[in-house]
TrEMBL record:
Biased composition (Polar residues): 520-540, 580-595
Organism: Promicromonospora vindobonensis
Protein name from the UniProt record: Uncharacterized protein
Transmembrane domains' residue ranges: 75-91
Keywords for this protein: Membrane, Transmembrane, Transmembrane helix
Residue stretches of biased makeup (Low complexity): 508-519, 541-579
């Protein structure tokens, strides 16, 4: 059971690896992917247009009640009229039949006075209820349609948001000729190679990887190429089984330059003079040897010139070669400087060949011809390594300068479909890297230089007119600051100061006051009153007796007049005394906050952000004809191609178009 489970896991891993290999081989050179969050779902514009239920005019209950009251009044009147008419008709000659008929008719109209208003009220209430039900049904239907429209819009927005691509490929600009990678780790370089390499080879180009990192950064790339049936040639140099002859096809002058550059690196006029002397010495040795040339035979020739070759015990050189070299002995060791250089070159060549089988391979590496290091088709990986720190730079320079020599000897535009990766180019020197860049551009080969650091000497490579820069994680603060300066600064409105003031005030006080007042008020008043009256009166009396009568009348008038005078005098005295004793306490708390915003010239990307970049992340900076300069965050992890929501079109471009 355990074996079957393990087998299933292995099979799934192989399937995923095959799918990944298929997806990274595309026909567009892309260095990674950038994440772009799609626009958030937009609320439906109908949200604020929720259907409103219409207001139905209420019933006029007062009118219905008034109608019913009017019917009741009619009932009384009609009842009275019916009774009166019935009684009147009953007294007539036709009363026997008219009175009952009149009573029946009157009673009918009397009942109608009550029934008719009630029937009308019922009809009105029923019609009103029906209108209310119809309005409610229409409102529910409109609300259902509105909710359905809102839900449909929200679902469409949710589906758009969930299905929208989030990862977009980041292609290198059209016509790129060189890309410089600064910083990063071995895993980051391996991811970049695995993403950029297949996308370059997918468009029909061949690739050479010079892996000086000692971390096999091209191993995954080679596996993916094999999975896609792309020819792969992997060489570990120096190795007894490498099958790589760096001197194949070279003449003595080429060999002199190659060994001199390997043994005497550096820049400056003095170092150039030393290299010229070394090249002349090696060329003189090579001219006196018979092909094929090997580093071991060259070292033996130098020992002949130094008189340390044991002819009877060694069989590296023929007698004729030894004799020719001995004839040059006096010229080669004529000066102390020449003797020192002979010793130095012999030591360098000895380190270069120790631990390897420095014989001419019978069969050249797969896909190569004799004298050719770079295979004509597919992927070629040349890796170097050593357990000795002094030998490793010699190996790197030997491979590097052989490739540089091959480019220099090629015709212009001879390899328009080629790309060279140099992983770990830190110790090769800026002059050599610029020379490689020039020769690669001349013959049509594109170049990718990968350096672990951004030392001051390499900062001159930043910002070339034909180069693209990829900034990966840089640990040293000075290098991160240099990268941030290269990326640039921009004007920003930022919060520069926040001021918070907190205060408390205590107040305590007391006061005492005393006072008094005296006031005297005097007053005198006099009043005079006059009144008069007139009265009138009349009287009249009559009497009657037996046979006689008597009467009398009279009038009276009276008048009266009077005068009264009143005088008064008053005096009042008022005294008042006041005193006051006051004590007060107060406490006040205050808080004030102020913000100051300023316009500053700050980094587009802070140095600490560069120091904290993930292993597979990078910042792509290259000139762009449309925007002046393009700065794009990139993740070069090839596993992104297996995620959902990965677009095949760069961000901002419609399908079917490239940058």
């Amino acid at each position: 059971m355990e074996r079957s489970t393990t087998s299933g896991v292995v099979q799934q891993a192989e399937t995923a690896r095959t799918r990944l290999a298929e997806r990274v081989f595309v026909a567009e050179a892309r260095c990674g992917f950038t994440y772009v969050e799609p626009p958030s779902p937009v609320p439906s514009p109908l949200v604020g247009q929720r259907p409103v239920k219409g207001v139905l005019e209420p019933l006029d209950r007062e009118a219905l009640d008034a109608d019913r009251r009017a019917g009741a009044k009619k009932l009384v009147r009609r009842l009275v009229v019916t009774l009166v008419v019935t009684l009147v008709l009953s007294w007539t000659a036709w009363g026997d039949w008219l009175a009952p008929a009149a009573f029946v008719i009157g009673t009918t109209f009397t009942i109608a006075a009550i029934v008719a208003p009630r029937l009308r009220s019922g009809e009105i209430e029923a019609a009103h209820a029906q209108r209310a039900a119809d309005a409610e049904a229409q409102h529910e239907a409109a609300l259902t349609r509105w909710q359905a429209d809102v839900d449909a819009h929200d679902r469409a927005e949710k589906d758009r948001y969930e299905q929208a691509p989030r990862w977009f490929p980041v292609p290198l600009r059209p016509g790129w000729s060189r890309a410089d990678v600064f910083g990063g780790t071995s895993d980051g370089w391996a991811s970049l190679l695995t993403t950029l390499g297949p996308s370059i080879m997918g468009s029909g180009k061949d690739m050479l990887v010079l892996d000086f990192s000692e971390n096999a950064v091209a191993a995954d790339l080679a596996d993916f190429c094999r999975a896609q049936d792309v020819p792969v040639s992997q060489v570990w140099w120096p190795s007894p089984t490498s099958g790589l002859d760096l001197l194949a096809g070279l003449d003595p002058e080429d060999i002199g330059e190659l060994v001199a550059n390997v043994a005497s690196p550096g820049s400056g006029t003095e170092q150039a003079h030393v290299r010229d002397l070394d090249a002349n010495l090696i060329e003189a040795v090579a001219e006196r040897l018979e092909p094929p040339y090997t580093f071991t035979r060259l070292e033996a020739g130098l020992r002949v010139l130094r008189s340390s070759y044991r002819a009877g015990h060694e069989e590296l050189l023929t007698a004729g070669e030894i004799k020719a070299l001995q004839g040059h002995l006096d010229a080669a060791g004529a000066t102390p400087t020449a003797k020192d250089r002979l010793q130095h070159l012999a030591g360098a060549l000895k380190k270069l060949v120790e631990g390897s089988d420095d014989t001419v391979p019978e069969q050249p590496p797969d896909g190569t011809r004799a004298g050719q290091v770079w295979a004509e088709r597919g992927l070629t990986v040349i890796s170097t390594g050593s357990q000795y720190a002094r030998r490793k730079p010699l190996y790197d320079r030997a491979v590097f300068h052989r490739i540089l020599r091959d480019l220099r000897a090629s015709r212009p535009r001879v390899r328009d479909n080629g790309v060279i990766f140099v992983a770990g180019a830190d110790d090769l020197g800026v002059e050599n890297l610029e020379a490689l860049s020039h020769q690669a551009r001349r013959v049509g080969v594109r170049l990718v230089l990968m350096m672990r650091s951004l030392r001051e000497e390499f900062q001159s490579l930043l910002g070339g007119a034909d180069s693209t820069a990829l900034i990966m994680r840089l640990g040293p603060a000075k290098e991160a600051a240099a990268a941030a300066d290269f990326i640039g600064r921009n004007h920003k409105i930022t919060l520069s100061q926040v001021t918070v003031q907190v205060g408390r005030t205590f107040t305590e006080g007391s006061s005492w006051s005393e006072g008094g007042s005296d006031s005297v008020t005097q007053g005198t008043s006099t009043s005079v009153t006059e009144n008069s009256s007139i009265s009138f009166g009349t009287n009249k009396s009559t009497g009657q007796g037996a046979g006689s009568s008597s009467g009398s009348s009279g009038s009276s008038m009276g008048r009266s007049h009077g005068t009264s005078t009143t005088w008064s005098e008053s005096e009042s005295t008022t005294r008042a005394a006041t005193w006051q004793d006051t004590v007060n306490h107060s406490t006040a708390d205050s808080t004030s906050t102020s913000e100051t915003h300023g316009r500053g010239y700050e980094y587009e990307v802070e140095p600490n952000r560069i120091q904290a970049l993930p292993e597979t992340a990078a910042l792509l900076i290259d000139p762009d004809g449309h925007a002046g300069r393009r700065i794009v965050p990139v993740d070069c992890n090839p596993g992104i191609t297996l995620l959902e929501g990965v677009s095949n079109v760069p961000h901002g471009l419609p399908a079917g178009r490239d940058r």
